[in-house]
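Request: Could I get any protein with tokenized structure?
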Amino acid sequence: MPENPDALFLARCQQLGAQAAANGESPVGAVVVRAGIEVAAAAEATRSQRAITAHAELLALQAAREALGHPDLSDCTLYSTHEPCVMCSYAIRYHGIRRVVYGRGSAYLGGTGASGAVLTTTQVPPHWAPPPEVVEWPSA
């Protein structure tokens, strides 16, 4: 009996997450799959790239765009060790990803469970700064 593809690709994400953790990153790995074939994979790299946007999901989406030669990923599935954050969730929606499969939910700002406006909510990880003062400038 063939192994469940979801389990197979989530195990691949776990390998990538372990590599990220070994490099001092958060233990997150992501894979983009099209027609049962891995198109792109990435490990979290925010510290090593010194870029807050170097989340595994975003890196995998970018690599998939490059591999396929276009930004339409509507026939793809994104796998991740963790529930994609709201930033990654925006990119997933933008690229039209058909399906998302993840291993662990996010207690704070996951793309399916976030509560409140991200900029002003206080329901964020404890190490985050308090919400900034937000000013909407009147239109001229």
Remarks:
- The chain has three helices and four strands.
- Residues 5-22 form the longest helix (18 residues).
- The two ends are 66 Å apart (CA to CA).
- The chain has one domain: 5-136.
